[in-house]
Specification:
globular, 17 helices, binds 1-deoxynojirimycin, two-stranded antiparallel ribbon, alpha/beta
Amino acid sequence: MLQNTFLALSLLLYIPALSTAYLERTDFPSDFKFGAASSALQTESSPHEGGRGSGTWDFFLGDIPAVQSYYKYKDDVQSLKNMNVKNYRFSISWPRLIPNGKLSSGVNQKGIDFYNNLIDELIANGIEPFATLFHFDLPSALQDEYNGLLSLNFVDDFKDYADLCFKSFGDRVKHWITINEPHVFASEGYKMGLPIQNDPKRHPYAAAHNIILAHAVTFKLYQDTYKPTQKGEVGISLSAQWFLPYAPLPSDKQAAQRAWDFMTGWFLDPLVTGDYPFSMKAIVRDRLPTFTQEEEEVVRGSFDFIGINYYTSRYTKSLKIEPSDVPTSFDKDHYLQTLTEKDGVPIGKQAGGFDQIYIYPAGLGEVLLHLKDSYSNLKIYITENGYPEKRNDSLEIQTALQDDVRIHFLQDHLKHVKKALREGANIKGYFIWSLLDCMEMGSGYTIRFGLNYVDYGDDYRRYPKKSATWLREFLTDC
Ligand code: NOJ
């Protein structure tokens, strides 16, 4: 008897501990949106199929077909349905809709038909579309004509393209992401020679400035012209990492703040305050473009939500600024070093297929709370979070589907989302990158980010991985 009472008591005492460790759908508000994500360039087709025009990435990709979502979109929708996922973030390919970039040069009707079919198929299956307008897919014609993002013409052409999308699809698409990871496109693109690199001190800032303007005028266009009838929302997806001071020194703390400023704040601060972060203005004052008063008014407040793409975190160590320093490249402007380990201990385990990703789930929680505390609790969707495995074709498919490591990755991150929600962060959704294995920028087909496996040797057949089954069960009750 006594023994039984003890057992009952210990079980009772154990339950609260278990319930924080265990994750359930009901830990999240019922209107919280769980979804999966992808992008056109990484999934659809070979560059020129279906009347698509050239894009700036085609130069790197050659004629290698993507994983055929252009043809297999119905299979993709079934994959989403099989996972009980009710939200899908995909991107619209600008060169597929407007092959030469400019609206005046003509629209590819096959492109319009394709996205209409995809959107209708999603809705028929009870899945809400979240459409990204620009996910690294710039029409080459605009690069050739006026250097793409470096010209103010980009702002007008992007707005025209967005207008076409709102007009064509806005009756059914209620969540729009203007631009994906502008930090990556404005910085990595120019570093890698994409689209051009002839002034690494100035071009990333100039490109970023035009991206911010393009986003803001597009937001305004939607607000003024479409929102009253379509009643949707418009945001942007920003890359974020959490930066931990390497040592508890004021200089390393400031370095952590600068690292945030030069990555996420670079775009987020103008959208919230109408201007760049203080540290950027102080350090890059001779090269950072400025907003005119009129631009500032359009830029400030130009979002309904902010999308956050989170994968990893870093330590930061401050570097001294010497009066004699001459800037050589924008990525040295923040005067800091990012590190993946401290005293020989890595910040987290390195992800299988991608050496840049050190798994640090607490960093996502920190990012969310920082957005709550320092940016007046703006509305957030986590628009990407996911785990890459190294592609290993020597594995039997059944073995390759056993991605327990991805399940743990997702659960560990979701626990921090749950915690941030409880602490008051205004988080409305969480999207897993990616719906299926696909082309990875910079790594090609060497890694697999998918919840669903793609068999490259057998007509890109899709198979749900164990993580897809986990997600299906997790989402069962919603
Ligand atoms: C960010 C990008 O938006 C996406 O295109 C990429 O595949 C993932 N992160 C993973 O690196």
